[in-house]
Design brief:
Strand content: 15-25%
Helix content: 40-55%
Structural class: alpha/beta
Largest sheet: 7 strands, parallel
Distance between the termini: 19 Å
Number of helices: 11
Shape: globular
Length: 261
Amino acid sequence: MSRQDRLSRIVDSVVARGSVRVDEVVADQGISPATARRDLDDLAAQQLLIRTRGGASANPSTGDVPLRYRTARQPREKEAIARAAAAMVHPGETVGFNGGTTTTAAAHELGVRIAAEPEFTTRNIIIVTNAVNIANDLTIREQARVVVTGGVARTRSYELVGPLAELILPSISIDTLFLGVNAVDLGGGFYTHNEDEAFINAALVRASRRTVVLADSSKLDTGSFARICGLSDVHALITDRGASPAALDVIRAAGVQVFLV
């Protein structure tokens, strides 16, 4: 098990129990007391839990839903994609996220990064999102100003959709949008399962100077119901090394820069 997987399991345990003791972490994870204390200290520094004497308790500001959504559905490929996305952000930028497991992971990685790097304290970033779990997760970061689109929340994706969600977007400009998708159709573009989500996601693309799609290799050369935009409408794709070389050639031919992680 990687350290990141272990940390995710510790967070899940704290959320489920409300609090844990160091000896419980030792027994659950099969690690030494020194490693358990170090892991708890690191998670407290990320504001994912509150360090207590002899253990840790859940941080109510972080929220149960975003934590469970992030840790329960985040395979290793998505973690690597998320870290690569977070590394692209510069202090002072306006960054957008739609909903989804990979964008949620990327938003979390960005939150950890801006809390750790002093440059983001003097030059804050603006986060624009239609995902309520991402907004909740990043609102605790003093280095970020969070702007939520508004709309009606969908249970499955936590995305805000509907007419209210699109009202703000023609009035703002996003430097980089990180776009999660359900499918990359090599002949049609980028797709999602729901037409309402596709509509607001397309509006986010139009409001952005640069769109970076976050999609693991299982989504390449597949289809879904509702089209967000064409291949040539995005600037970059971050995917994992399991991606088909032939599929990547088609995507590059459309003018999309590909980052493999």
